Q: What sequence folds into this?
């Protein structure tokens, strides 16, 4: 795997983690659309520590398989993007600056990594 790709992907991942940590520090919130036990979907918001733990899980999954980590990362991005729409439309939850920033950074990383997936082992 080329060093340039690793540095850019790691930098974008650290930026995602930084957005989640800063949101945690300032008391902002996220909403990731995910199933729950009691309802069809859980209600907003999702605490930023849950997002940080998802990123830790993705980093651990990356050590096992880069491809599976990218697939799971893309699923988290989908949940985050759908959370903005469903949270606003169903629960009248207004997406925060952290939600928009994390969605933007995760989108950039997802597009970059999928475009360079020839470096991943399957």
A:
């Amino acid at each position: 795997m080329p060093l340039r790709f690793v540095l850019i992907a790691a930098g974008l991942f650290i930026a995602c983690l930084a957005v989640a940590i800063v949101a945690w520090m300032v008391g902002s919130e996220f909403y990731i659309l995910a199933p729950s036990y009691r309802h069809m979907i859980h209600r907003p918001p999702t605490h930023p520590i849950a997002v940080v733990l998802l990123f830790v899980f993705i980093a651990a999954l990356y050590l096992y398989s880069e491809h599976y980590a990218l697939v799971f990362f893309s699923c988290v991005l989908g949940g985050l993007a759908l959370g903005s729409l469903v949270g606003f439309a169903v629960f009248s939850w207004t997406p925060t600056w952290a939600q928009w920033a994390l969605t933007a950074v995760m989108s950039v990383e997802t597009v970059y990594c999928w475009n360079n997936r020839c470096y991943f082992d399957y």
Notes: The longest helix spans residues 3-26. The two ends are 13 Å apart (CA to CA). The chain has a mean pLDDT of 88.
